[in-house]
Amino acid sequence: MDDREAVERCRAGEREAYRFLVERYEREAFAHALALLLNRADAEDAVQDAFVDAWRAIRRFDPSRRFYPWFYVILRNRCLKSRRGRSPERLDDTLVVAAAPEDRDLAGDLDRALRKLPAGDREILTLHNLDGLGVREVAARIGVPEGTVMSRLSTARRRLREQLGPRGREMLE
Q1: What's residue 86's pLDDT?
Q2: CA distances (Å), 99 to each of 49, 85, 89, 128, in order?
């Protein structure tokens, strides 16, 4: 089964088809939520709530579109809602860096630097650098113009370089 077929079956009320979509995207969704929330429990809750929200809205989904970008908007909104009113101390020890470099010390430095960045910077760096999305795809996913993505990406990279200091800067060059 592919996404298009699963969505059509979901729109007809088949819960089993939705399980296919959940299993296909739950890891990616969790990684995105974790990058935004920096807390495993909060990320798990946001992902679960977003999947419930998406199921409830699946009949309004345009089947000519791809599922995950539509779902990501729902997930992102859940994460932003979850962050409101939350104390910044609710961080856990889960690494944000999914594909850590060979050098464990540098990976730790990168993780600490990412944690110090605003959530929007972490999001744009995750989508572009870790997920490998192009500027156009990132713009579509977060709902801003391509020029805004390029500007935010530049700012996020500059802030990350500042956080990393001289040791990690060559990694971003």
Answers
A1: 58
A2: 26, 30, 25, 13
Tell me how far apart the alpha carbons of residues 25 and 118 are, in angstroms, rounded to a whole number. Answer: 25
Q: From the CA atom positions of the chain, what is the Rg in Å? A: 17
Q: State yes or no: pLDDT of 52 exceeds 50.
A: yes
24 pLDDT higher than 60: yes
What token pair was written down for 111?
A: 């993780």
104-172 sits in which CATH class?
mainly alpha
Token reading at 151:
């500007």
Which fold would CATH assign to domain 3-83? Rna Polymerase Sigma Factor; Chain: A (1.10.1740)
Residue that is written with structure tokens 């088949």 in the block: 14
Q: Which residues contact 21 (CB under 8 A, 6 or more apart)?
A: 3, 6, 7, 10, 67, 71
Residue intervals in the chain for CATH 1.10.10.10: 104-172
Q: Which amino acid is at 127?
A: L
State the Cα–Cα distance between residues 113 and 122, nearest whole angstrom.
10
Q: How far is CA 60 from its chain centroid?
A: 23
Of all residues in the chain, the percent with pLDDT exceeding 70 is: 83
Q: Is the pTM of this model over 0.85?
A: no
Q: Give 14-18's long-range contacts (Cβ < 8 A, gap of 24+).
A: 18/55, 18/58
